[in-house]
Amino acid sequence: MTAKRLTTRRVEKPWGRHSLWPGFTDPPADGAPVGEIWFQDETEETPELLVKYLFTAERLSIQVHPDDAAARASGHARGKDEAWVILAAEPDSTIAIGTRGPVSREMLRAAALDGSIEALVDWKPVKPGQVYYSPAGTVHAIGAGITLIEVQQNVDLTYRLYDYGRPRELHLDDGIAVSDPEPFVPNFTPETPAPGRTILAEGPKFVLERWRAPRGRIALPPGMSGWFVPISGTGDIAGEAWQAGECWLVHADATIATDGESDVLFAYPLAERIDILR
Ligand SMILES: O=P(O)(O)OC[C@H]1O[C@](O)(CO)[C@@H](O)[C@@H]1O
């Protein structure tokens, strides 16, 4: 029975914030803004998934990630599908996902160079509770004023197509080569197969579930890890206390209990759901 509380790594970003989220210490007012908190385990080999919080005050770059084949061809362990669970958003917050219509890669390149890519991508209003699964190849940009939890394949590989004139490196050739510049079509609609269990995303690279007040035993297939991410509430997992704002890596199995109400995410690297909480 094992569950391990992951340590946090704070990542400064030009689009980050000074006021983060309950449970996370704000950076000093004269310090660099923090955009991401990563949950990791220094003692393990890179596990398949990575969980992060993102805190945005400005738009992220308009970007794209390679799929497994393209990433491996350039020496990386895997490509990057990612999913976002929106925790909070300003009334006018948006996320760009896909393009407004199909465009050629040549047009995408020209638009990235002259900035018209901002109008080419599809900025959708977002509100708390929404979830997006963005497969590799999707041209996207998370907008301003958003707090979200991201679950992604574990690789730090972003090809920036456009950065609004910020002085950061772009990766136009690599990015255009792996982009699918077309309108985004969700591959799944969230389902609640049982009271308290909602499937937010179901493959192809991971399953993401949202549980209300979970109690029982998490049972994972041999050798597989799972990520337990409490959004609210308290309880214990494998005999240790958990609280909101943490992330636990579960191996094999672990008993979980909730004190009263709670809201948690659970992610595991399979293409389809399994009966994980018994
Ligand atoms: O290049 P930027 O704008 O800092 O964005 C990179 C970030 O965007 C994301 O891919 C989210 O879309 C994060 O996982 C990643 O760290």
TrEMBL record:
Transmembrane segments: none annotated. The keyword Transferase does not apply. Keywords: Isomerase, Metal-binding, Zinc. GO terms for molecular function: isomerase activity. The keyword Isomerase applies. This is Class I mannose-6-phosphate isomerase. It comes from Sphingomonas colocasiae.
